[in-house]
Design goal:
Length: 287
């Protein structure tokens, strides 16, 4: 397991009955998690929830607010600062488990390295690379998420770093970068299971991931350091993304691959919350 720990403003107080109880800088939220198939260990703690996301039998859901919350608030995770808020899709704008990868990015990124972050969301990996001195290209099809990422860069004191923000379909952008003759020292991607591009293009992970990985390898410099693939698709093993990195990276360039489940420990227990998977290719010189 890849265990994300010491996240400062984020803790999981309990899990059970398809839900997780979590604290975001002291504001406690209860959200659904389909992989939580066990019973609650600390039932009394759930009374602390200021808001609960209730799923609908027709799909989707909505927040039930038990206390008045700020429209948004700040948290510190992995040494970076972010705005979070309850969104209509149960998310908060941050995946704290990714702090495990942010540590890796900082360790393997040098000043002036060129890093490409695809499906970059609100910018956690972007800020980790920028904090290490990299020139980062941040790509996401959602204009609102890119604007949120810029605000997070301001919060973290990184607004003046060389970050290029792009609203675009990731595969189309990668192919254009090839035509421009661009190369990168590191690539990070966090593709969704399903989504739409900036021009309405439909994305299905199982159908599109291999092509995207293959095209991305053409953008990696000969001295490239890493390629990271995250996945939150339930049922998609880390073996799948590790195999893609084996075929398109290790077989061609050597280096090393590590892949496993990302997890967060639950406070005062030996239970871990599964939070997707990560597969990483690391170059020979970075091993």
């Amino acid at each position: 397991m890849f265990i994300a720990q010491e996240m400062k403003d984020y803790q999981i107080f309990d899990t059970g009955d398809g839900m997780k109880l979590e604290s975001w800088a002291g504001i406690v939220l209860a959200r659904p998690d389909p992989q939580v198939v066990w019973k609650k260990q600390f039932p009394g703690k759930w009374e602390q929830a200021a808001a609960v996301y209730q799923r609908s039998s027709q799909g989707g859901g909505k927040w039930e607010f038990r206390k008045k919350l700020p429209e948004r608030w700040q948290v510190e995770v992995g040494g970076l600062r972010f705005f979070v808020r309850p969104t209509g899709f149960k998310h908060t704008g941050l995946f704290p488990e990714q702090s495990y990868n942010w540590n890796f990015i900082r360790q393997h990124t040098a000043p002036e390295d060129r890093v490409l972050n695809l499906f970059a969301y609100t910018g956690g990996a972007t800020l980790a690379a920028a904090a290490a001195g990299a020139r980062v290209t941040h790509v996401d099809a959602a204009k609102g998420m890119v604007a949120w990422a810029k605000e997070n860069a301001q919060l973290s004191g990184l607004a003046d770093r060389p970050i290029r923000y792009i609203v675009d379909d990731c595969l189309k952008f990668v192919k254009r970068e090839q035509r421009r003759g661009k190369f990168y020292d590191g690539i990070i991607m966090d593709p969704p299971s399903y989504g739409r591009g900036a021009g309405g293009e439909i994305w299905k992970l199982e159908e599109a991931l291999e092509e995207l990985v293959a095209e991305c390898t053409k953008l990696l410099d000969k001295q490239a350091k890493y390629f990271i693939i995250n996945s939150y698709t339930t049922g998609l093993s880390s073996v799948v993304t590790a195999n893609l990195l084996e075929i398109y990276m290790h077989a061609q360039r050597g280096g090393n691959i590590e892949a496993d489940n990302l997890v967060i420990p639950v406070e005062h227990s030996n239970v871990y919350l599964p939070c997707g998977t990560t597969a990483r290719w690391i170059s020979e010189q970075e091993k």
